[in-house]
User: What shape does this take?
Amino acid sequence: MKAAAPVKLRGLYAITDSQLLAEGKLLPYVEAALQGGVRLLQYRDKSADETRRLREAQTLQALCERYGACLIINDDAELAARLGVGLHLGQSDGSLAAGRALLRPRAVIGATCHARLDLAEQAARDGASYVAFGRFFDSLTKPGAAPATLELLQQARARLNLPIVAIGGVTLDNAPTLLAAGADLLAVVHGLFGAPSAEQVRSRAEAFSALFHP
Assistant: This one.
């Protein structure tokens, strides 16, 4: 079997939201986002329904494979290992080293670093594939998170040899400033999946993706 090509960690990074994507929206909205150019998709569902989460993750994996995107599982190393996909860990979600031990050697593993460069440097030492900073702007997903600054992005770009994710209130209006400051990936939740239709999700994804190809 031919080995998978390395994942290029740059572009639009969509994160699912179980409330935004309830009532049958998950699959059509995600497929629309992938059609619009999403490069990474994080499946984020904190429910205890393991059977449904496995079923949904398997379906999302098939969609990501169809469109050449990378699936990331939030905070569930065992599920990520079972499917052979990527993993994202928050600061309280377990160690990167343990996650890396469960997954394939080249699996993508990301780390939440809030607004702290020291956490990102530690994540880099622990084997992270990318680091995520935020929130940069007012966020509906994590309204109480400590604010991150453009200066932090610039410092991280200068000191880290890892792809950098910017998250938190990212919109088409403020995204260019994040890219200019050094972000490689823009993580978007409401700015993408808060659309009233799948067609508008695709349109938003296309607009975000175009920012990476000026």
Q: What stands out?
A: Strands lie at 11-15, 40-43, 70-74, 86-89, 109-112, 130-134, 164-167, 185-188.
